[in-house]
Amino acid sequence: MARTVTSASRLLDVLPLFRSDPRVQVLFTVAAGSAFDDGVGDYLRDVEARVVSWAQAVDTPFDLAVSASANGELHRLKAPLLLVPHGAGHNRLLAATSDITGDATGAVSGLARRQLVHDGRIVPAAIALSHHEQLTRLAVECPEAVPLAVVTGDPCFDRILANAARRDRYRRSLGAGDRRLVLISSTWGPNSLLGANSDLVARLTGELPFDEYQVVLAAHPNIRYGHGGLQLRLWLADALDAGLVLLPPQQGWQAALLAADVVVGDHGSVTFYGAALGRPTLLASSGREAEELDPASPTAALSRALPRLDPRRDLLGQIETIMDTYRPGAYDEVTGRTLGMSGQAGTLLRRVAYRLMDLEPGPDPAATALPDPLGERGEVLSFLVETEVRDGTVALRRFPAVGEPGERVRDPHLVVDAEELDRRLLESAAIIVRGDAADGWAAETLRRYPGCFMAAEVIGARRVRLALRDGRRFEVTATAGERGDPDPRCLPSAVYGWLANGNGPLTTVRVGEREATVRLA
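Request: output the structure for the sequence above.
Response:
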């Protein structure tokens, strides 16, 4: 029983329990009533699930029903019901969810008596919990349900751990290369990262050096389906133009966590999983998570313990500091209070499900691969570039030319691709770059844009032809270093910096972790 895209995704994490078993036929139904149910039907069609109507589902006897949400008219199902959580444990207060109306202050979603009991009868036949800690809170919320609770561990986290060896594959899929990958995670609501800091994603994407950092956003499905994908892309337009990778709402965040070098998040489950994986983690939210979280939950404890990202201060410096000072295992004690029974969730959940179906389970299925994270991304066409020249070496940093540069770039020059649509950037550019060579293009560009100092044509992966306003012409050839080729669009900036500040010959260009020997003719 799917209610939202989030709960449907968690059900797909559970489905491998029934792999290669011809005795089991899986059907889906969608229970209406959530404010975020838009997109569930499309998602299930995309994975080619067999979907039956809610009316048919409640009129038909089944051997087992599985739900990752305790909301809705689950009591109408004619089947033993297995409840599984749709996040990292049970953390949110019912008053903070829009699926529940009425006075529910203090009740914990998924453990609350009003969700588990109908007309005096406990609705689920089994309640899967990820840790014994949740049993204690269930005993407070709904003591009569404790005999039906089973501690099984977290199948989602187990699946992430099982795919850890694919980190490099997922990094390639996200286009990280040798850059550090920053995963931004936002849950939904006014206290979320996006709700409390609407410009933070664009600032992070614009203020981190492009050749050293790749920024990826995992936004909670409720954001996309509550406001619409079109609206989300409009809000994130500057960040997408600056190179942000926006993950789809259905999947990708698990693989992105494995690929990440640092996580910037809020009080959502993705941040919790990131800290549990040992990723350096910064909390960037409004500081009012207590309005949404059970204060006794491990997620609330983690929110109190994580270092905060201050959006008013230098963002690059804070990212560098957390990566340099992070102590592995710093939050294991907290995250371990939710993610118990590591590696056993598949086996334990399978036993519960087959017991409820009155079937003998076969051998435990092997772990399943996480799909490659294929995100939506924009193309960066304009850069603010700072250069430092020392002993024939030009070291440069490129920053996407989005928003106000502020103090993040020292004495920059503007490099703009010839395909840039913003005429203001073209008219302000010191260097205009074309991705190939064309007869007469350089002269025409210098004539059309009188503020342009240099027109550059890329004529190969390691060669660029330059035309300067004063009539000089150069050809730059690079020889790759051990870590690979710098982007050839960096070579014009290296020459620009050398002409402005160099005293001797130009011999080397350094961009991020990449370095090349250059020859100037």
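Residues 94 and 109 are 5 Å apart (CA to CA).
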